[in-house]
Each structure stands twice: as C-alpha cells, then as structure tokens.
Amino acid sequence: MDLADLLTDEANRLAFARDDGPGNLYYTTHMDLSLPVDQVGALEQGIIVSRSYYNIEDRETDLAEAQAVDQAQVGDLLLVRMTLVAPNALHNVLVEDPLPAGLTGLDQSLEINQQNLQLPQSYGWEDMFSRGWGWWYFQHTQMRDEKVVLSAKYLPAGTYIYTYMVRASTVGTFNVIPTTAQELYFPEVYGRGEGGTFVVTP
After folding, report:
1. Contact present, 67 and 138 (Cβ < 8 Å)
2. In the chain, which ranges are continuous DSSP H helix?
3. In the sheet where 158-168 sits, what is the strand order?
4. Average predicted confidence (pLDDT) for the chain
5. Which long-range contacts (CB under 8 A, 24 or more apart) does 71-75 make?
6. Contact at 8 Å (CB) between 151 and 140?
7. Quick check: 155 and 93 in contact, CB under 8 A?
8. Percent residues over pLDDT 70 in the chain
9. Which CATH number fits domain 36-201: 3.10.129.10, 2.60.40.690, 2.60.120.260, 3.50.50.60?
10. What residue ranges do the domains of the chain occupy?
11. In whole angstroms, what is the distance from residue 36 CA to residue 58 CA?
C-alpha cells in the first residue's frame, strides 16, 4: 500500500486473520517511508550542503567554466566537490557523503594532497576548485568503502569546500544518496543535498 492511500482523518488499522486449527500465527510488519533517491530534494535547517562530480581535468579549469557530470567511463578519475555553507557558527559538526556503488574513493592520505599540506601563505581564488577552501577546519576525515566522513569541533560562519577523488569502477546506473551535515548534539541543525543517479559506462 502506498503512503498516499493511508487514511488521514482517522487511525489506520492493520488486520490479521487465520483459519481455525492448531498452531501459532506469527507475523511481521514494516513501514517504509523512504522516497526514491531521485525524488529526495535538498533540505536546509541551519546548514546548506551540496556535492558535485567533475572530470579530473577540470582541476585546471576556471570554476565558472567547469561543468558537473553525472556519468563517466570505467577507469575515469573524478573530482568530488562538497560545499557546506554555515549561516551561523556551528559546533561538533558531522558531514557524511555517501559514495555511489559504482565509484571507489581514493585514499588521499597515501599521497601528497590537500589534507597533508601546510596551509599556504598565499591562497588564490583559482585554487578553490581543485583544493577546496576551509578544509583545514575538519580535524577528522575518513574514507570508508561506502562514504566519506568529515568532522569538525567548530566551524565559523562561512562557506567551506572539501574535495577528494574517486574512480569509476563498476558499470551500471547507481543511486546517489544525498550528502548530509548536522550538529551532533543538536541534530535539528541539519542540512541535506539532493539525491540523484550516476551512470558508469564500459
């Protein structure tokens, strides 16, 4: 039964029946209120968060000219760009960015990258696309099989950009679960990006 078919002006009842005879009746019920991922829209409750995928060559492209992509070929490298906007200062922030099943995250701790470089003395706007901005506020980053997790004890009001790389590894059409961000101890301060799909071709 669809959620739209439930009664709204009175209680909904679920009835079970059995025929006469020996034995016990066992039953289990579940209610699934989740939307198909491509119907999940962005939600802003004190945090604005989004994520886009770009061809790796776009690292050298002007930010205004780069085009986000929703498909790649097996073996392609992609740049993932998460943007978090904090209208007000945030405390104990957790950001989770699920990976589509057809993409594999690259462990950037194994090479020279933005997470183990010193904060540059000079940082130009042209660096924001490939290296991000404000990533140094995130004290803990984890590249898991299914998602990337960031945490920060404190984020001043502002805009933060975090980038990492993935490789297209499996052919298919995959759900892209939205990126989420929240304050751990005040989870009502929350943000969610949009859902979608990502296609990996042979």
Report:
1. no
2. 128-131
3. 48-55, 77-86, 158-168, 103-105
4. 84
5. 71/198, 71/199, 71/200, 71/201, 72/168, 72/198, 72/199, 72/200, 72/201, 73/168, 73/200, 73/201, 73/202, 74/168, 74/169, 74/170, 74/171, 74/200, 74/201, 74/202, 75/167, 75/168
6. yes
7. yes
8. 83
9. 2.60.40.690
10. 36-201
11. 31
**Between 191 and 119, residue with greater pLDDT:** 191
Enclosing H/E stretch for 84: strand 77-86
Q: How far apart are CA 2 and CA 164, in angstroms?
A: 39
User: How far is the C-alpha of 195 from the C-alpha of 133, rounded, in Å?
Assistant: 24
Residues with Cβ within 8 Å of residue 83, at least 6 apart in sequence: 48, 49, 50, 51, 159, 160, 161
How far apart CA 68 and CA 71 sit, in angstroms, is: 10
Q: Which tokens sit at 102?
A: 């057809």
What are the tokens at 56? 């790796």
pLDDT, tens digit, 9 for 90 and up, residues 145-158: 899 999 999 999 99
How far is 129 from 161, CA to CA, in rounded Å? 8
Is the CB of residue 155 less than 8 Å from the CB of residue 161? no
